[in-house]
Write a structure and sequence with these properties.
Length: 608
């Protein structure tokens, strides 16, 4: 990685060092000629589209190294890490380019942070390799691991800023494997966060791992960072990671690493199949009901008599009641054990109950209880229960037939889980839908062929100097102000709005014809204009009158910045198939964003 830094290790005894490096380079050159790269896909958890492949070095064990990490440790020890890594990097890039994947996917390449400490380190080499192999800079992503720290925070910030300035992407790999993860996440501002496989393995059965994963995903999305779950090997782990909000998945379940790039698919149908199986044609509310519902066996009237009822309670000593259905399986209510005790503990009570005449009246013990269809939303089930708060719970039916029973405790658990899931899918600051819900909505809009999808991406102009000058609290007020504007305009026209993270927002509209398309442009322009006017109230009188602020830029230089505004990039999506490929949609968005930022009215639109 062309870690851009002016830092160098002192180069004492130049000639002996050169001789030593030359010897080691010759030795390793012979070894790496026998190495190869395997590639593993990284796919979207909703659409199944492959957004990139990770290059994984193969062949180190055959050369006597116990692991790939041991091989790179040896390179660092012999101080030839940079030169050998550069040769390996070019080999991976050429293999990727020759497969013709650069137009739709990104190449994720692992780089050892220690390359900057090598005596032969030279910045800018990746740019030359990209030009030589014909790979766009936007299609290349460095994976940085927190296993090896930079020599100083300043070096890391300086390095990563230069990498980003050249259009390269950054992924923070093995997150959670080291001790500096949160600090690196804060300072590096990566594009992707790859969760260490330790936290993915058996996550569906580990409450602490679930909590960690949910917290990290929420934090990443708040910062506008997309999350990759590594090491996905079971369908249960995939569903849990997807439900928690992981944007992408990587692992054996999707595809094992392959030496042959022709085996990499642009879309993995297994993801769609798993999502369909998980839904089973039901909503998420139904899944929550099923997870909490007790499938208590009922007794059937008039088939079952009093003997069957008493035998039921004898076998099920923990049961307080038994559900009752008719011969068609339709619920009639419940019979509580406590109502039978008056007879059971009275003299000759059991004989009385078993008397034929009394047994025929077993239906007299049935008490009606609230009933809810399994397909009803949680809110409706809760409403039914509120009208019957003294009941033990709710009888659940499917197609009118008895299916199970929800206790009071189960209902409360469902409501709690739904609220947690809702909060997880929302941005914690604005409470607007987050990345996962945005993606699901995009897919739904693209599948609706009746109307033209219109996607709008908003991001603030000059937000950093504003935030630095007035502080995070006022910065959050600006973000909330824009969220309120989106919600206000949503009431004027059918529109979905979401918060991608940080100062990036999303809106989706539909257009019926060309006239309606121009109305969409005017509608979005009004939102941008209103924010520019309203946000002035957050500035001091002096800054408002001057129309600018004095703050520090990313290079530490104090200069004048215009007041805060928002730019809007509008995409009229007519090629739905192309829009489902994240990389192509991102590229179209990147181009239009540049136009919007340079436009006097902070607005640009294009047909995709």
């Amino acid at each position: 990685m062309e870690i851009e830094s002016e830092l160098r290790l002192p180069n004492v005894c130049v000639e002996p060092l050169d001789e030593m490096l030359g010897y080691h380079y010759t030795m390793y050159d012979l070894i790496i000629d026998r190495f190869d790269f395997a590639f593993q896909p990284i796919v979207h958890t909703v659409t199944g589209h492959c957004i990139g492949v990770e290059a994984l070095l193969r062949g180190t064990e055959k050369e006597g190294f116990p692991s790939i990490l041991a091989f790179f440790d040896a390179l660092a020890r012999d101080r030839v890490l940079f030169g050998i890594d550069l040769k390996l990097r070019e080999r991976a890039m050429r293999k990727f380019a020759e497969a013709g994947l650069a137009a739709d996917m990104r190449l994720f390449y692992n780089v050892d942070n220690r390359v900057t400490a090598m005596p032969d380190y030279q910045p800018g080499q990746t740019d030359l390799l990209l030009e030589r192999t014909g790979i766009p800079s936007s299609s290349f992503c460095f994976e940085l691991s927190e296993r090896y720290q930079f020599r100083s925070p300043e070096e890391m910030i300086h390095t990563l800023k230069r990498v980003k300035d050249r259009g390269l992407r950054i992924a923070l790999d093995d997150f959670g494997a080291g001790f500096s993860g949160l600090q690196v996440l804060y300072q590096a501002e990566p594009d992707y966060l790859k969760i260490d496989r330790f936290f993915i393995e058996d996550v569906e059965n580990d409450a602490k791992k679930k909590l960690f994963l949910a917290t990290v995903v929420s934090l990443a999305h708040t910062l506008g960072v997309e999350v990759v779950a590594e090491g996905i090997e079971t369908e249960a782990a995939f569903h849990l990671c997807r439900d928690i909000g992981c944007d992408y998945a990587q692992g054996f379940l999707i595809q094992r690493p392959t030496l042959h790039l022709r085996e990499i698919m642009r879309r993995y149908d297994i993801v769609g199949e798993m999502n369909r199986r998980n839904q089973r044609g039901r909503s998420r509310d139904i899944d929550n009901v099923l997870s909490q519902m007790k499938e208590l066996p009922p007794i059937t009237l008039p088939r079952d008599d009093m003997r069957a009822l008493l035998e039921y309670f004898r076998r099920n000593k923990q049961a307080d009641f038994v559900p009752v259905v008719n011969e068609r399986g339709e619920p009639k209510g419940i019979i509580r054990e406590s109502d039978l005790k008056e007879f059971i503990y009275a003299p000759f009570g059991r004989d009385i109950l078993l008397n034929r005449n009394v047994a025929a009246a077993v239906k007299n013990f049935v008490q009606r209880r609230p009933v809810a269809e399994i397909s009803q939303r949680i809110e409706k089930i809760l409403e039914i229960y509120r009208f019957n708060e003294n009941a033990e719970g709710i009888i659940v039916t499917e197609g009118g037939r008895y299916r199970g029973f929800l206790s009071t405790r189960s209902i409360l658990s469902i409501v709690t889980e739904k609220n947690i899931a809702l909060a997880r899918d929302q941005n914690p600051l604005t409470r607007l839908p987050g990345n996962r819900l945005i993606t699901e909505h995009i897919v739904e809009r693209l599948e609706d062929t009746a109307r033209l999808p219109v996607f709008v991406y908003f991001d603030f102009d000059n937000f950093k100097p504003f935030n630095d000058l007035y502080g995070f609290r006022v910065g959050d007020r600006a973000i909330l102000m824009f969220a309120d504007i989106l919600n206000t305009f949503r009431s004027k026209r059918e529109m979905f709005v979401g918060h991608i993270g940080g100062d990036d927002f999303f809106a989706a509209l539909t257009a019926r014809d060309e006239t309606d398309e121009m109305f969409c442009v005017t509608f979005v322009s009004e939102m941008v204009e209103k924010f520019a006017n309203d946000v002035r109230s957050l500035y001091s009188v002096e800054d408002r009158e001057r129309g600018s602020v004095i703050s520090t830029d990313r290079d530490g230089v104090r200069r004048r910045f215009p007041l805060l505004t928002a730019s809007a990039s509008i995409l009229f999506v007519k090629n739905r198939t192309e829009a489902l490929i994240p990389e192509r949609l991102d590229r179209a968005l990147s181009e239009i964003k540049k136009r919007a930022k340079g436009s006097p009215d902070h607005l640009a639109w294009s047909v995709f």
